[in-house]
Amino acid sequence: MTDHRTTVAIIGGGQAGLSASWFLVRDGVDHVVLEAGTLGHEWADTRWDNFTLVTPNWHCRLPGYEYAGPDPDGFMTRDEVVSWLAGYAPTFGPPVREHTKVTSLTQRAGGGFLVEAEGPDGEETWEAEHVVVATGGYHVPVVPSWAPALDPGVDQLHSADYRNASALRPGGVLVVGSGQSGAQIAEDLHLEGRQVHLAIGDAPRVARFHRGRDCMTWLAEMGLYDTPVASYPGGLAAREKTNHYVTGRDGGRDIDLRQFAAEGMRLYGRLASGAGTDLTFAPTLRAALDSADDVYRSICRDIDTHIEAHGLDAPPAAPYAPVWEPDSDPTGLDLAEAGITSIVWAIGYRPDYRWVRVGVFDGTGRPTHTRGVTAVPGLHFLGLPWMHTWGSGRFLGIAADAEHVTDVITGRGGRVIEPAAELARRRSPGPVDAAPAVA
Q1: Over the range 382-407, which residues count as b (16 or more CB within 10 Å of their CB) and which as e?
Q2: Percent of the chain having pLDDT more than 70?
């Protein structure tokens, strides 16, 4: 066993961990970044082949590093994101130890923490005064407990393992879940000509473009990505919200499940249970579609209000009109009869911090914190969805959160990261350009 000492141990070498390292390198603080795989490997390992960002490229910024390509309002593909992220570490030389999997984090009796890990050369320990857990919040794919009772002749995989339509057996595909991954995977399969069945939940949707600009650019300018989670209606409960579905493919467009249905995709409400080849759905399809459209229209109205309040020059609004209505709320499906050979589960992940043996978790296994700072002195989290703002789990908000956490560690103050709203306003000082038409 190899023993090491450091001031700060950062666990996780994705964009969050590297962002924290950038500030510590800047401030000359001794630290180490412990990464179980390789830097940024999650982007290559858990995204499908045709994956694109749903946020515009100009949102991609990390401390001291931002997107500088030719298409700031476009949407990088998976491989482009991997390449862009790979260029970050060489700009500041973080002290990274790859292929070092942390297996235990405990408090030391004399203060500080003990980190145990499996490294390339065997077991190793690290004594650290501070620890930043930057492993994200998506650890264990969620699959219903009754999934093993389904017909073994039907292949089952999680969205993290989906790569492309041709990797699945011929036949129909049931996608379960209509969040960002589920809706985009259903779109990918649909565009490849597969017969898609989609069980939708309560995920909302958003227009890709409205009044001549990308909606996420409008929302950034309006300050939505800078607003602390506690300031949202319902307060911290906002952390349980599902992100709006939309796509960045082919320059970006709406995902309109009604349009997909008009083109032959089969839609259902929430999947309730199943055994053998029989599935049961809750009669929620019509309500789910209507609710998603209501959110879509509400966001457009908020943007309209912003435009009017600030006297901005923008093209007129183009109201959305539904192109399809369900005849009924289907409550049953026979997989064999429908010719379904594969199921893609896209119903999310649950956190798994069992290796963190420090009492900072709530009853659901999630860390309790205030903007990443826990009640245990020296223990911090970073890169969680909705950790502080809507932007916290995205490239757009990670830098500000990393700056806050490292300021707590070092005692240094003074902001260097611009709020997203300021960045958005500087990008669009003049009249708004026309944007592609949407459904």
Answers
A1: bbbbbbbbbbbbbbbbbbbbbbbbbe
A2: 94
Residue corresponding to tokens 């593909």: 77
The four Cα atoms 90, 55, 255, 187 give a dihedral, to 10 degrees, of 0
Please, what's the largest Cα pairwise distance for the chain? 67
- Considering the entire predicted model, what is its pTM? 0.92
CATH 3.50.50.60 placement within the chain = 2-139+351-427, 142-206+244-345
Strand partners, 144: none
For the domain spanning 2-139+351-427, the CATH number is 3.50.50.60
Tell me the average pLDDT across 398-422. 87
Query: Tell me, what amino acid is at 169?
Result: R
pLDDT bracket for residue 422 (50, 70, 90): confident
Q: What angle do CA 410, 33, 72 make, to 5 degrees?
A: 90
Structure tokens at 92: 């500041």
Lowest-confidence pick of 124-133, 284-293, 336-345, 380-389:
380-389
* CA nearest to 252, candidates 192, 221, 209, 203: 209
Rounded distance, CA 337 to CA 318, Å?
41
CB 187 within 8 A of CB 208: no
Topology (CATH) of 142-206+244-345: FAD/NAD(P)-binding domain (3.50.50)
Q: Other C-beta atoms within 10 Å of 408: how many? A: 16
Residues 365 and 383: their CA atoms lie apart, in Å, by: 16
Dihedral angle over CA of 148, 150, 153, 156, nearest 10:
-60
pLDDT tens digits for range 233-259: 766 665 666 789 999 999 999 999 999
Instruction: Tell me how far the alpha carbon of residue 107 is from its chain's centroid.
Output: 30
Element (H, E) at 422: helix 420-427
Q: Where are the alpha helices (DSSP H) in 155-284?
A: 180-191, 215-221, 257-262
